[in-house]
Design brief:
The complex is a heterodimer of chains A (333) and B (375). Chain A is α/β, with parallel strands linked by helices and 333 residues long. Chain A contains 12 helices and 13 strands. The chains are: A alpha/beta (333), B alpha/beta (375).
């Protein structure tokens, strides 16, 4: 039984341009005695070969449910999911032969060492060829060769995540689903994982990255889908997403939250004003407007005296600004 | 598929060997239970007692002779530590024995006149074992009456479950063996399955491009090794404590034992899949196994109390619960007796139960594979 389809056979198998496609997919849960809960609402996207596609959303936004749909663990209530042209919940085995998942949980056996974990995984998944050599290769790829004989229970969180990535890669998948791959991981391990993922995508692997780390999405993603409460709220490249919001911001730091609040109130007529404690951010339509606002502040027209402004800076919107603009600032459960 | 099964078996065996707690729970617990229970059973077979013989004569001689010769399949009924009245009284007073039979001074004269009366003193909590002393003494008096007047004897017609009387030690030994097979199969399968969720590794198993067959077969294969170890350990213990005849566990006992294993493993799989935590699996498996042991493995004890109500209903239910027939078949095969009458029906029931339990497990497994919000 082969676990790796070469690109040619994959094209034959799918006949589609996209490796993963969701077409107006919804997932609804009926909970006894409670209202219907919609985990995913009319979600559509497509991931072509070699692309890193990022699902960015707050906790409980439906990211993991979407991943479960793609790997066939859940059937959509409405709409259609296609992976390699197949419906995963109907053709689970076929889909899983070419798809690997790096789940949110590390899913490793603590009392086995790295090598034993990978050998078990390879044998259970039916990896063909010289498995021991392939285990050596993926261990090298994630830089765990030196610790391969140590029990996984002694590994740091970052090492465990790298080993989980190695395990996913052992089957040589055509598509990879990464569910929060750098959750609780140190900077060095995070960078190592990012480097490997980028190399894999450059080699033609399609990657679905689910994360709520802005930096991760900014660094890795070719396209980003912001998802909130199960529904897509914005999609595009980083540049396209930034273009959808006010790109230039004036960030003002006031002497106290009270002054900041008064200034926020006084500036409410401007395009977009938000406040976080004693920092007020003003969305600008262009740099000339920055000068106008600063001049007005200098004249004390925005509820604060010039001496009450501690600092100001002009900055471009980053993904976090985009994300907060689309998903709001309220806390999620 | 066999490669996946082999991988799963190897992985689980290595993990088991590296987890001493797991070894204790799955292998040593049934051995300790069997050891304790088999020692208790031994204490109830040959009863140590003292006799204060204050009367000498034909009738008291006859009483002593019957007392000395009383025996069952398990051995002599009494171990008479002394017949000296003073020594007997002293031993009883000092707590060296829990029972004293006093043959009073006028016993022989009274017995000649047709009124034999002995005195039994007991450290009694009215339990079944001490009541048994009373029954045994009454038995001696009855034997004496039968000897003097055979026509007055009560004729007892027994309807034995087995065509030949069986040693209680062997009866109990087989019950304990049944307990071990069920417990080990249930706990090991339950834990092996639940552990995949506990270690948060179930998703890795489920996302393999395979059916559930290697998972189920692999888990059962590991369980079979662990159960074999437990059973061997318990059988050895029983051989030491109950003189349990291991050589009689021939091929005739293998099929019913295998059926018990499958039943236990299927129940364990259902527990593991439904609970997904090993902590509740262990006590629940222990309780379920004890219930089976008391209802089906020690049915003769239950029968003595089944005078109506729920107990009688429970006892009657054992006729239809195939575990009882399977256990009895092991006993029958050990004694070289013919198949127990209820075996063919019980075999069908057992197969159906295992099928239902496994199907339910797979259904549970499928319905719990959503892993929403991680696991």
């Amino acid at each position: 039984m082969t676990t790796m389809a070469d690109p040619a056979s994959l094209r034959d198998l799918t006949g589609h341009d996209s490796v993963i496609e969701l077409d107006r997919v919804s997932v609804r849960f009926h909970r006894r005695g409670k209202e219907e809960f919609v985990a995913v609402r009319e979600l559509s996207f497509a991931i072509p070969r070699g692309q890193i596609f990022c699902l960015l959303g707050p906790n409980g936004s439906g990211k993991t449910t979407t991943i479960n749909l793609i790997c066939g663990l859940r059937k959509p209530t409405d709409g259609q999911v296609r992976v390699f042209g197949q419906e995963p919940h109907k053709e689970r085995k076929t889909v899983l032969r070419n798809l690997a998942v790096m789940p949110q949980e590390t899913a490793l056996y603590d009392s086995l060492n790295a090598r034993e974990n990978l050998l078990f995984h390879g044998n259970y998944y039916g990896v063909s060829g010289d498995l021991k050599a392939q285990v050596g290769e993926v261990l090298k790829l994630v830089q765990l060769t030196d610790r391969q004989n140590d029990r996984v229970g002694t590994y740091s969180g970052g090492m465990q995540r790298r080993l989980t990535l190695a395990r996913a890669l052992l089957t040589k998948p055509q598509a990879l689903l990464l569910d929060e791959p750098t959750l609780g991981v140190d900077v060095q391990s995070r960078q190592a994982i990012w480097d490997r993922v980028r190399e894999l995508a450059d080699g033609g692997m399609s990657v679905l990255l689910s994360t709520n780390y802005m930096e991760e999405a900014e660094t890795l993603a070719d396209r980003i889908l912001i998802i909130d409460r199960g529904a897509a709220v914005a999609e595009g490249t980083l540049a396209e997403l930034k273009a959808k919001v006010t790109a230039l911001r004036l960030v003002l730091r006031f002497a106290s939250p009270d002054v900041a609040q008064a200034a926020e109130h006084a500036m409410s007529a401007l395009h977009r004003v938000t406040r976080d404690d004693q920092v007020v951010t003003v969305g600008l339509e262009g740099s000339p407007q920055a000068l106008e606002v600063l001049a007005a502040l200098q004249q004390g027209r925005f509820g604060a005296q010039p001496r009450q402004i501690e600092s100001f800076e002009l900055k471009d919107a980053n993904l976090q600004d985009v994300f907060l603009e689309f998903t709001g600032r309220s806390l999620r459960n | 598929m066999f490669r996946a099964i082999r991988a799963l078996v190897r992985k689980d065996l290595v993990m088991t060997l590296r987890s001493p707690v797991f070894l204790v729970i799955s292998i040593l617990v049934p051995a300790l239970f069997a050891l304790l229970y088999s020692l208790i059973v031994q204490a109830a077979t040959t009863v140590p007692i003292v006799v204060a013989r204050d009367s000498q004569g034909v009738y008291s001689d006859q009483f002593m002779q019957i007392m000395r010769s009383m025996k069952s399949e398990d051995g002599k009924a009494w171990l008479i530590k002394t017949e000296d009245p003073e020594r007997a009284a002293e031993m009883y007073r000092d707590g060296d024995t829990i029972g004293l039979v006093r043959i009073p001074a006028g016993f022989d004269t009274a017995a000649a006149a047709g009124r034999a009366e002995v005195n039994l003193q007991l450290e009694n909590i009215n339990s079944d074992i001490t009541k048994n002393f009373e029954l045994r003494i009454e038995h001696i008096i009855r034997e004496m009456s039968v000897a003097s007047s055979p026509s007055a004897a009560v004729v007892i017609q027994e309807n034995p479950r087995f065509s030949k009387d069986m040693s209680f030690q062997r009866y109990m030994g087989t019950g304990l063996l049944m307990f071990t097979i069920l417990y080990a199969a249930m706990v090991n399968t339950g834990n092996l399955v639940a552990r995949e969720w506990e270690d948060r590794t179930a998703k890795g198993i489920v996302l393999a491009p395979r059916s559930f067959t290697p998972f189920i077969v692999g888990k059962w294969a590991v369980t079979s090794v662990q159960t074999l170890l437990s059973t061997a350990l318990v059988a050895g213990t029983l051989a030491l404590t109950l003189d349990y005849p291991l050589s009689r566990l021939g091929p005739g006992t293998w099929l019913p034992m295998l059926a018990l294993f499958f039943y236990g493993a299927a129940l364990g799989m259902l527990l593991g899949v439904a609970l997904r935590r090993s902590l509740p699996v262990v006590p629940l498996a222990a309780v379920l196994t004890l219930v089976h042991f008391l209802l089906c493995g020690f049915e003769s004890y239950l029968r003595g109390y089944a005078h109506g109500g729920l107990v009688e209903a429970l006892w009657l239910s054992t006729r239809y619960w195939p575990v009882a027939s399977m256990t009895d078949q092991i006993r029958a095969a050990m004694e070289g007796l013919p198949l127990v009458a209820t075996l063919p029906g019980a075999a069908g029931w057992m197969a159906a139960l295992v099928a239902v339990l496994v199907t339910s497990s797979v259904w549970f497994l499928r319905s719990r594979l959503t892993f929403t919000q991680g696991q």
